[in-house]
Amino acid sequence: MANPTGPGAGRKFIVADDHPLFRGALCQSIRTTFPDARIVEAKDMDSLQRCAAEHGDSDLLLLDLHMPGAHGFSGLIFLSGQYPQLPVMVVSANEKPEVMCRAVDYGACGFLPKSAPVETIAEALHAALAGDLWLPAEVARQCAGESAAQDDIADVVASLTPQQFRVATMLAEGLLNKQIAYEMNVTEATVKAHLTALFRKLGVNSRTQAVLAISSLDVEPPGQFTPPPKQPAPA
């Protein structure tokens, strides 16, 4: 029987990943490490924003870098701006060191490769809950000593309202105003108002300039999905 007063007791996690197989495996890894943990799941940015609003007191958010409804690092930056008290650890199959370092620059408390075994996941979770930065050892050495680059686009994305963020994401995906209005169930006039505010914050004058600015946050998508490591059954 789990000790309710032991390390990790009463912890709450948000697990955000659009792939149900990996999301389930990650939840199982958390429960293996923290049997009493509460876990809230999200499959896209819309559901994640609801989860974050309702469970802003969570101890850790595990965020897939390629969530539907986000554009590159924009999801990480937006959430860090909206919920600065909520630690975010990026989880991705994109394991390039420069991507990991950039995630930390944008506010992540760590970067967990999707290929990590359960022992490494446990190590990363303990470090994040202790308030430490966690990266794979070889990447941590590479990132050490590097100063975070000033990024005006990141500052803008962090300041967006949820509606402005949705508009920015759909704009970057090439949707027209009428399509954005349909997806958001608002009028085209409302979309134009959001775009005007977005252009002002970005310091641009056209859709093309806005898309180029947002695209600077792009991340190369990972290769073909590899199923997560099989987790041991609870004792």
UniProtKB/TrEMBL annotation:
Organism lineage: Bacteria, Pseudomonadati, Pseudomonadota, Gammaproteobacteria, Cellvibrionales
Molecular function in Gene Ontology: DNA binding
InterPro entries in the record: CheY-like_superfamily (IPR011006), EvgA-like (IPR051015), NreC/VraR/RcsB-like_REC (IPR058245), Sig_transdc_resp-reg_C-effctor (IPR016032), Sig_transdc_resp-reg_receiver (IPR001789), Tscrpt_reg_LuxR_C (IPR000792)
Entry-annotated residues carrying 4-aspartylphosphate: D64
SUPFAM superfamilies for the chain: C-terminal effector domain of the bipartite response regulators, CheY-like
Organism: Microbulbifer aggregans
Domain HTH luxR-type: from-to ranges: 153-218
UniProt keyword annotation of Membrane present: no
Domain Response regulatory intervals: 12-129
Single Gene Ontology BP annotation: regulation of DNA-templated transcription
UniProt xrefs under CDD domains: LuxR_C_like, REC_NarL-like
Pfam annotation, one family: Response_reg
Underlying gene: degU_1
Family annotation (Gene3D superfamilies): 3.40.50.2300
Keyword DNA-binding appears in the UniProt entry: yes
Keywords, comma-separated and alphabetical: DNA-binding, Phosphoprotein
Protein name according to UniProt: Transcriptional regulatory protein DegU
